[in-house]
Amino acid sequence: MAADIVIRDAPNEGRFVAELGQQCASAWYERNGRVLHFFRVDISQALIENGVGIQLLRVALAQARLQGCLVEPSCDFVADYMRDNPETHDLLTSEGWRLLRQ
């Protein structure tokens, strides 16, 4: 089922969007210079169970890395993912580290 996931950045809307069939998930962010502040993720339990949330964050954080951005994860979904995936820690701002420790 993961092969059917379409993920894109919608910078004018301030979100990364994952689509699987008729279902959609969003990782909302505000960009301040080189910092992406992720403040909300909208995703159904069904999409979480299908791995869409993980794929969404992998793409969003890979894009942040490619763009030379740092990340502040103020929503639990992003903070939990980053906490569990140390390979993303180099993307954290000092405020991001503080948020991860909460």
From TrEMBL:
Family matches, as InterPro entries: Acyl_CoA_acyltransferase, GNAT_YJDJ
UniProt superkingdom: Bacteria
Keyword Transcription appears in the UniProt entry: no
Keywords tagged on the record: Transferase
Domain N-acetyltransferase: 8-93
Gene3D superfamilies reported for this sequence: 3.40.630.30
GO MF, one annotated term: transferase activity
Keyword Iron carried by entry: no
Signal peptide: none
Name of the protein in its database record: N-acetyltransferase
